[in-house]
Amino acid sequence: MSLKLSTTSFTVEVDKTGEPATTARAFIAALPTDARYFIYDHEAVARSGMKKNVLLFITWMPRGASGTSKVFYTSQRRRLDTVFTGVEDVQCTTAEDVAKALGETSMIADDEEEWDPDA
Q: What are the pLDDT digits (tens) for 68-96?
């Protein structure tokens, strides 16, 4: 589920929903170019080998999003903590970040460089 903030009414609106059978690859391929929140029901495998569902709250802040959008979504995130309890909070700025959060290691580029704050 994709959640969008209304800048005029300061409300959270459902932007899009996906079918439960939607793959992680399809989800990643459909990421928008502007900031959003996502609720993603992810099936993960525990260390014991058992499958478990993990509900992720993904704060999506792509590098190309407007500065205003990034500030607005960041400032409103904590207001949603009381609504979405029991979720794992994930912050992502690239499709590779989302792939890592979803365990899709085959989608991560081998030449991915770490961000250097001093560069």
A: 999 999 888 888 888 888 899 999 999 99
**DSSP assignment of 4-61:** EE-TTT--EEEEE---TT--HHHHHHT--SS-EEEEEEEEEE-TTS-EEEEEEEEEE-
pTM score: 0.79
Judge whether 114 lies within some domain. Answer: no
CATH number, domain containing residue 61: 3.40.20.10
Give the structural domain span for 89: 2-105
Taking alpha carbons only, the member of 30, 32, 36 closest to residue 12 is 36
| Residue 106 per-residue DSSP state | G
Q: Which residues contact 104 (CB under 8 A, 6 or more apart)?
A: 24, 25, 28
Give the three-state DSSP class for 3.
strand
Q: Which phi and psi angles does 14 have, rounded to 5°?
A: -75, 120
